[in-house]
Structures are given as structure tokens and as C-alpha cells.
Amino acid sequence: MLLLVHGLPKLFNFEHELGLIEDPFGLGARLTLSLAIFAEVFCPIFIAVGLLTRLATLPVLFLLVVSVIWVHPEWSLAEGQFAWLLLIIFSTILVGGSGRLALGTGLSHRWPLLSKL
């Protein structure tokens, strides 16, 4: 859902989204939007295939925390429920990791450091 609802529209409408994106840390709209696209498009793909799963959840979690705390602090629990739900889901993935059928599981036999990520 993160990929389809938030990521792909940002990717396909990059120029339009530049005018809409909030920049809470003053990095500039282009860099902020690029980082959001990385967290909302590429990281969910890595997670879905099970490649560097735990590492891929970190940008997503950072993006969600920033959006809930700095970008939309006025949201009530009802208004921010999708963000809170995603925080719970991606935190669970961070703790639990991918699964035994994940692509990263097969690669970790060749490169043991990958199993830690």
C-alpha cells in the first residue's frame, strides 16, 4: 500500500510533487522528495522480495516518524491512523525480519553478513 498509494504517484508526478512536498529539515524540496521516493518505492520492493529487509525498513520508519511528528503534528489518532498502522507493520518487520522464503535468506548462505541486515 505504501508503494501504490504514496510512492508511485510521487515517482510518476515528480515535478508536480515538488510543489507539494513539505521540507521539515530544510534539505530542499528536490532532495526531500527523492528521499521520500526512495523510502516509499525502493524500500518496499526490497522488503517484498526479502532482500536486505531489516535495513530497508529503516528509511520507511524514519519517513513515517518524520511525517507523524514534524510534518503533521496536528493529526489526531483517527487522522493519522494509516501512518500509525504502517509504523506498527514496519516495526514488526524490523524486529521479525524477512522469512525463510525471502530472497535474502538464500543469499545469506553465501554472504553471512547479509543475514544480519
Automatic annotation (TrEMBL):
Topological category with respect to the lipid bilayer: Multi-pass membrane protein
Annotated keywords: Membrane, Transmembrane, Transmembrane helix
Protein name from the UniProt record: DoxX family protein
The UniProt record lists the keyword Ribonucleoprotein: no
Annotated localization: Membrane
GO CC annotation: membrane
Highest taxon, organism lineage: Bacteria
InterPro entries, alphabetized: DoxX
Pfam families in the cross-refs: DoxX
Main subcellular location: membrane
Regions that span the bilayer: 27-48, 55-72, 84-103
